[in-house]
Amino acid sequence: MTADSQLDEYQVKAETLAEEIVGMIPADLAPSTPPDVESRGRMLQNPVSAEPSVEDSVWWQVDTYVEPVQRDGASEEAAKAIAAQLLADGWEHTDARETSEGRRTADAYGKNDWYVEVTWVRSEEGKYETIEIGVLSPKTTRGDHDEIHS
């Protein structure tokens, strides 16, 4: 790996941070089953060549899918608890957007070039309430991580 790639370090930190954020969900809302987690290196398509280069810009991304206890408002309550802790830990709320005709809200937070997105859903009869947590590391070079492609 090139000396300036921090991807291995970012993988560990991203996975740890995602676990910590799941741990911010209050016990009375905590999921009864372990969350689904996807953890992978990511990169943009190289505009010059389809061949990956050790100097390509990459980041580590962890996506965690949580089903809190199923009761009205659980997803929103869990997201508010996560937000309070992130803000207390020095994260800055950077963006919020609604999708699915306003049913889903994604709140974004940034700190030291790290990015966290917490997506929660509004209660709706007959629909599961979920929370999605995305953690993206700062960019670094790909180095010898041959498994990472766009």
Features:
33% strand, 2 helices, 150 residues, Protein Transport Mog1p, Chain A, alpha+beta
Helix coverage percent = 10-25%
Described by the principal axes of the CA atoms, the overall outline is: elongated
Name of the top-level CATH class: Alpha Beta
Number of strands: 7
**SS field, number of helical segments:** 2
| % residues in beta strands | 25-35%
When the domains are counted, the total is 1
- CATH architecture assignment: 3-Layer(aba) Sandwich
What is the name of the CATH topology? Protein Transport Mog1p, Chain A
Question: Could you tell me the radius of gyration in angstroms?
Answer: 17 Å
What is the end-to-end distance?
A: 19 Å
Order of helices and strands: HEEHEEEEE
Q: Which spans have pLDDT < 50 for at least 5 consecutive residues? A: none
Biggest sheet layout: 7 strands, antiparallel
Class from secondary-structure proportions = alpha+beta
What is the averaged pLDDT score?
88
Secondary-structure topology with pairs:
Blueprint: H1 7-23, E1 36-43, E2 57-66, H2 74-88, E3 92-99, E4 104-111, E5 114-121, E6 131-136, E7 140-141
Antiparallel strand pairs: 1-2, 2-6, 2-7, 3-4, 4-5, 5-6
Structure, described:
- It contains 2 helices and 7 strands, in the order H-E-E-H-E-E-E-E-E.
- With 150 residues, it is of the alpha+beta class.
- The chain has one domain: Protein Transport Mog1p, Chain A (3-Layer(aba) Sandwich), CATH 3.40.1000.
- Strands 1, 2, 3, 4, 5, 6 and 7 form a 7-stranded antiparallel beta sheet that branches.
